[in-house]
Amino acid sequence: MANVRIVVDSTADIPLEERRRLGIEMVPLKVHFGKETYLDSVTITSEQFFDKLAAAKDMPTTSQPSPADFLETYKKLLEEPDTAIISIHLSSAFSGTYQSAVLAKSLLGTEADIRIVDSKSASLGFGLLAMAAAEAVQSGKDIDHCMRLIETLKANTRLYFLVDTLEYLHRNGRIGKASAVFGSLLNIKPILSIDNEGMIYPVDKVRGSKKAMNRIVELFQNDFSGKEVDVTIVHANAVPAGQQFEAVLREHFSVRNTSYYTLGPVIGTHVGPGTLGVFVTAVLS
Predict the structure, then answer these.
(1) Is the residue at 168 inside a domain?
(2) What distance in Å separates the CA atoms of residue 12 and residue 117, rounded to the nearest whole number?
(3) Residues near 114 by Cβ (< 8 Å), separated by ≥ 6?
(4) pLDDT tens for residues 1-60?
(5) C-alpha–C-alpha distance, residues 147 and 181, integer Å
(6) pLDDT, one tens digit for every residue, the chain (285 residues)
(7) Residue 4 backbone dihedrals phi, psi, to 5 degrees
(8) Cα torsion for 137, 43, 117, 83, to the nearest 10°?
(9) Which of 18, 103, 183, 245 pairs as cysteine with 67 (C-beta 3.0–4.6 A)?
(10) Structural domains of the chain, count
């Protein structure tokens, strides 16, 4: 049976200690503040990024890894005999990262067993998939089992998220200017998600954070009522809001585990500080 290795890009937002524990390789995207360039979660941490963002006069920009970046990682892993790779990445609707990975695979020919996965998601939306696959590898599962597990988890996970301001999504081309201005003036909190094509879309809009949280609970009940669930909270300097959200969820669901993660610099560039996302996954029997 092949030795399976898991590869992600940095927008999976998996902390370094978790990557080390699970043997997950990470290929970083880049964040640019003017002429300064940083490797996402390598040469700049989330804390450093949000500090710089608060002081920056101009919005940072981001860029994807090159095929050569992926090629270097794949070649390193394939130096071990009988190795197969699952490479899971940010939605291709957001970035060319997935395409860079596909091109890198093509440069290695047909002998290498590399499965490239377009997660159609972002942040822990595919970080969770990578960690679950890596844990399956450590328990002795083969690559086909891991691929089935990834698809099963995708089908049993839902995401909703709130942003503190629509300015960042507007500046990065995710929503129009009129929507951003309208939301800011009226304290409208759009409830956002990512669709099956990997695109951000508005689910609903309510006035005020508390009402938004209650509405998201209603939405989760459509899929998870009566089920035991795991909750993953991702945030950008929004721990208190995350804790408040967790308390509300525990009033309505049988929660097995709750995990907190911080959004990394690249995702933070596009959604801004104060963002709060909640992933709920049905516990599989």
Answers:
(1) yes
(2) 13
(3) 74, 84, 85, 86, 87, 105, 108
(4) 789 999 999 999 999 999 999 999 999 999 999 999 999 999 999 999 999 998 998 889
(5) 42
(6) 789 999 999 999 999 999 999 999 999 999 999 999 999 999 999 999 999 998 998 889 999 999 999 999 999 999 999 999 999 999 999 999 999 999 999 999 888 999 999 999 999 999 999 999 999 999 999 999 999 999 999 999 999 999 877 666 656 554 444 344 444 545 678 889 999 999 988 888 888 888 999 999 999 999 999 999 999 999 998 899 999 999 999 999 999 999 999 999 999 999 889 999 999 999 987
(7) -95, 130
(8) -40
(9) 103
(10) 2
Place of tokens 């860079």: 100
| Residue where one domain finishes, among candidates 122, 155, 188 | 155
Domain residues for 69? 3-29+64-155
Name the token pair of 25. 């390789």
DSSP symbols for 84-144: EEEEEES-TTT-SHHHHHHHHHHHT-SSSEEEEEE-SS-THHHHHHHHHHHHHHHTT--HH
Task: Note whether residue 56 is domain-resident.
Answer: no
**Mean of per-residue pLDDT scores for the chain:** 91
My answer on whether 171 and 75 are in the same domain is no
| Number of neighbouring beta carbons within 10 Å of residue 159 | 20
Q: Is there a single domain that holds both residue 162 and residue 260?
A: yes
- Residue 275, domain CATH: 3.30.1180.10
For residues 18 and 123, state if they share a domain. Answer: yes
Residue 111 belongs to a domain? yes
The CATH number that applies at residue 122 is 3.40.50.10170
* Amino acid at residue number 96: G
